[in-house]
Structure formats: structure tokens, C-alpha cells
Write a structure and sequence with these properties.
431 residues, TIM Barrel, 2 domains, five-stranded parallel sheet, 15 helices, 22% strand, binds zinc ion
Length: 431
């Protein structure tokens, strides 16, 4: 058992903190209070703020290798070049790309991710999640319609076989859960969208897809089907509480209500949406309609960001400026979306909360940064003036993966050197 003393405990409703202690046993929180008596190892948190698990609800980790060379491209060129590099990577290069992404997420206090990955080196990808020590829900980005010449299509039966392999090999093993991940309606036939939904429903898995990200792709779906993308997914019967919808930008008014009624969660990725000039997700209207919304960092080739606190700040600002209403997406709501909102989207009832019986995933955050001075307002200052770089120590399932700024199980310089050399090798493809 581990007793952590001298903690600053957050209240996301009042945005205040109070001093307290937390006792963990194995991978669970067993007690939280102002004073706890227990025979346990003791850790003095020295007044640091404790945050529950932050959850990244939409990522593509291998793209951490291609941050930089794909900057300032339009989405069509961006997608072609990104995929061109991706298909050239060896098994070991996939491993290091995913490891780099996961270690950055952990470094910023993100203990759980929802990942859309690819089939070609899947065992190396899963090994990277395991070695990073991150809680990963992951599925193969399935597609049976080629949007451009770099897209690799896979027949429906093969997509189901891959989902089955993933489920049998990795679901429920350690910190891993598997999902299904059709790339999105522009890249998938209705038959594939429905077959993967049936597969996930039978097994209680997350159904992770892109929705209405690009305006031209969304228009094409409307021309083909007479429906908007959300309307089309509802028509196909694949929108429900286990559905995670990345981006969800180009929605008609009635589609906002459809998403809210279905219980699906929108994964809002503001850095990607702004940097690729995709558009603005109508988050405040979705929330007002009762829809569930959480945050995602997306892949770094598009977002250049794995810091979920920064993502939430950008998401909040984007709503304030586009609605001309400073009260929308306030700090209180952002912290809930970052933590419990993301966890619920991935089907966890015991994650993203500092409560007895919940999983002991949390981070300890320094409050002595000059930018966040004003201890009485530390939560709002962290969101609006701070960053994930203030995260000092991170625990996943009761085990420390980063302590006092040091990742415990990896030589980060070695990982970075390895990734630099991979980028040097593939650089010629990007010229
Ligand atoms: Zn994506």
C-alpha cells in the first residue's frame, strides 16, 4: 500500500483545492481524506496538485515520427505524404514511433489513449503500448474505399479477421483493450461500417471512427447518400454509447441532436482542426444539446501536440471566439471532459476520478511555476496559463511511470536518437 500525503485535491465543480491524503493498494484507490491512518509506504507530495487520469480520446501514435515535415500542407497533400512515409516504416520503426508518442502522452499526465492504428506492424505497436506502460484502447483503421493512391484498401472479410485477431490476442490483457476503428464513411462502404459495428456490439467494444472532418469529403457523402455524415451513421445504425466520433465538424443542426440522442462521444481535436484548416466543431452547441464531448490530441503529424491540457485550452478558446460568448466551455467543464468524460467515452466507469475503488491513474502537478502563481486559482491557472510540462509524476494502475520529471522505464534520449535517425532515413520521401 502507498499513502500519499500533503496533496492538493481538486474540486472541478468549484475549481478550488483542499489539502488531503490518498491511500492506494495495488491498482486501486482505497481511501481519500484529510487524514488517513494506515500501515503503508509514505510519499510526501509536497503540496503538489493531484489530477485524475487524463484521457486522449483520438490518436494515431506512429505519426509522432512525422511531426514537422508535413507542416502547412493542405489535407490532400498532407494525407498522401503521411501515408507514403508510414508504409515505408519497418517493424522496429513502428515500435519507436508509437513508443515516442506514448511516452509523451504519459509525460503530460495522459494515462489512457484511444488509438486508431494500422495492421502492418500491429504486434510491434502493441508491444510499444505495453513497454510504455500506458492504458490503450486500440483498433485497426479499416478502409475499403481508396480516397487517394496511397490508401491501402482491405476487403470486408479481412477487416473482420484483423479485428478478431486483435480481440483474441490483446483485449483485456494488462492495460490493453481492443476496439474496431473504421476510418470514416468517406473511406468505408456501408457494409463495412455495419459489419464492424455488429462485431463490436457482440463483444462490447468501442466503435472509433472519424466523422465530418473535411468539408469536401462531407459534401461527397451528402451527394452520394443524400445525408450528412452523422445522419448517414445514424441511418446505418452505428451511432450509440460506444461510438467515438473524431472531429465532427461539418454537422447540420439536426445532426447535433442525433449525436446527443445516440449517447456517442465527440472527440474534439482543436489543434488538428485549426492547423489543417478543417473548420470548427460546434462543441458548445453539442454540449447544450446534451451530447458527450471529450478531447483528443490526434496524431502529431497534424496536431504537433500531445499535451492534452493545451488541447483543452485551445478547445475552450475556440468556442469562446466563435460564439462570442466567454461563458462557454468554462474551466470546470474542460477538466471534466479531460478526465471522467474521456474515460466514460472509452467505457471505463472507474477511471478519471479520484474516488475510492477507482483505478489509481493520476498525476502530480507542480504548482510553483511563475506563470501559474495564485494558489487559490491553481486549477484555472493550470488550464489557461500552464501546460502539461508542469506534470511532475505520473502513476498508471498504482505504478509510477514518471517520477519527479524522469520517465522511469526508458532512456528518453535513446528513444529520441532512434526516432531522429528514422526521420533522417525517410526524409527523402517528403521532398
Ligand atoms: Zn484521426
Amino acid at each position: 500500500m502507498l499513502l500519499i500525503k500533503n496533496l492538493r485535491l481538486p474540486n472541478f465543480d468549484t475549481l478550488t483545492t483542499s489539502m488531503g491524503q490518498m491511500l492506494i493498494d495495488g491498482d486501486r484507490i482505497v481511501k481519500i481524506g484529510s487524514s488517513i491512518e494506515a500501515q503503508a509506504e509514505v510519499l510526501d507530495a509536497d503540496g503538489k496538485l493531484i489530477l485524475p487520469a487524463m484521457v486522449d480520446t483520438h490518436t494515431h501514435m506512429v505519426q509522432s515520427l512525422t511531426k514537422g515535415p508535413l507542416d502547412d500542407l493542405n489535407i490532400t497533400d498532407w494525407l498522401k505524404k503521411m501515408l507514403l512515409v508510414q508504409w515505408q516504416l519497418t517493424e522496429q520503426e513502428w515500435y519507436y514511433g508509437v513508443l515516442l508518442g506514448c511516452l509523451q502522452s504519459l509525460r503530460f499526465g495522459v494515462t489512457a489513449i484511444n488509438e486508431m492504428t494500422y495492421w502492418n506492424q500491429i504486434d510491434a505497436v502493441a508491444q510499444a503500448y505495453k513497454d510504455a506502460g500506458i492504458r490503450a484502447t486500440f483498433g485497426i483503421g479499416a478502409t475499403d474505399i481508396a480516397e487517394n493512391e496511397q490508401v491501402k484498401v482491405t476487403p470486408l472479410e479481412e477487416n473482420l479477421r484483423q479485428a478478431e485477431y486483435l480481440y483474441n490476442t490483446y483485449n483485456g490483457k494488462g492495460l490493453l483493450r481492443t476496439s474496431v476503428a473504421p476510418q470514416g464513411r468517406p473511406a468505408c462502404t456501408p457494409e463495412l461500417m455495419k459489419a464492424l459495428h455488429e462485431f463490436s456490439s457482440e463483444r462490447g467494444l468501442i466503435y472509433h471512427t472519424h466523422l465530418a472532418e473535411g468539408i469536401s469529403e462531407t459534401r461527397k457523402i451528402r451527394e452520394r447518400t443524400g445525408r450528412g455524415e452523422a445522419e448517414e451513421l445514424n441511418h446505418l445504425g452505428v451511432l450509440d454509447q460506444r461510438t467515438v466520433l473524431a472531429h465532427s465538424i461539418w454537422l447540420e443542426n439536426d445532426e447535433i441532436g442525433l449525436i446527443a440522442q445516440s449517447g456517442a462521444t465527440v472527440a474534439h481535436c482543436p489543434s488538428t482542426n485549426m492547423k489543417l484548416s478543417d473548420g470548427v466543431c460546434r462543441v458548445s452547441e453539442l454540449l447544450q444539446s446534451g451530447a458527450r464531448v471529450a478531447f483528443g490530441c490526434d496524431g502529431e503529424a497534424s496536431s504537433a501536440n500531445r499535451d492534452l491540457i493545451r488541447e483543452a485550452r485551445l478547445g475552450s478558446y475556440l468556442q469562446k471566439v466563435t460564439t462570442l460568448d466567454p461563458t462557454v466551455l468554462p474551466a470546470s467543464q474542460c477538466f471534466k471532459m479531460l478526465t471522467v468524460g474521456g474515460a466514460e467515452a472509452l467505457g471505463y466507469k472507474d477511471l478519471g476520478k479520484l474516488e475510492e475503488g477507482c483505478l489509481a491513474d493520476f498525476s502530480l502537478v507542480r504548482t510553483d511555476d511563475i506563470s501559474t502563481t495564485n494558489q487559490a486559482r491553481i486549477l484555472t491557472n493550470l488550464l489557461y496559463a500552464g501546460s502539461g510540462y508542469q506534470v511532475d509524476s505520473v502513476f498508471v494502475g498504482g505504478k509510477s511511470v514518471m517520477f519527479e520529471g524522469e520517465l522511469l522505464h526508458h532512456d528518453i534520449n535513446k528513444v529520441m536518437d532512434k526516432c531522429e535517425s528514422i526521420l533522417d532515413r525517410v526524409e527523402y520521401l517528403l521532398r
